[in-house]
Amino acid sequence: MAHIKDFTERELIGELEELGYSVATANEDVLKKINQLTSERDVAVQMLADWCDAVRDNGTGWDDWDEHYKDADFRPCLIRNLIDSVRKPSEN
């Protein structure tokens, strides 16, 4: 099987069209995925930054950062499925 880098642009367009994709549709799908991944990354980075700020500004006691833990562990958010998919099983 040839790698994408082995295709000329015209050959790649032909392969996509044979699979039922128009270049416009393929580009649109790629852009949607890029936007989704960018949003997920931004949410994750902001959650981590908020947690780090709380510990830095308030200390390491549970009451000082528990809301950020709850955001990451329990509350619905854009990256809830991603977080759940990489967590280790509970030892309880």
Describe it.
- With 92 residues, this protein is an all-alpha fold.
- The chain has one domain (6-86).
- It has helices at residues 9-18, 23-58, 62-73, 80-86.
- Helix 2 packs antiparallel against helix 3 (62-73).
- It is elongated.
Throw out a few tags for this protein.
4 helices; 71% helix; mainly alpha; 92 residues
Q: Indicate the overall shape.
A: elongated
Helical element count?
4
Oligomer: single chain
Could you give a short account of the major beta sheet? none
Unreliable stretches: none
Relative strand content: under 5%
Radius of gyration: 21 Å
How are helices and strands ordered from N to C? HHHH
| Helix-strand category | mainly alpha
Report the count of strand segments: 0
Head-to-tail CA distance between termini: 47 Å
- Domain unit count: 1
Q: How much is the average pLDDT?
A: 80
**Helicity level, as a percent range?**
over 70%
Any chance you could write out the topology, listing elements then pairs?
Blueprint: H1 9-18, H2 23-58, H3 62-73, H4 80-86
Helix pairs in contact: 2-3
Compose a concise summary of this entry.
With 92 residues, this protein is an all-alpha fold.
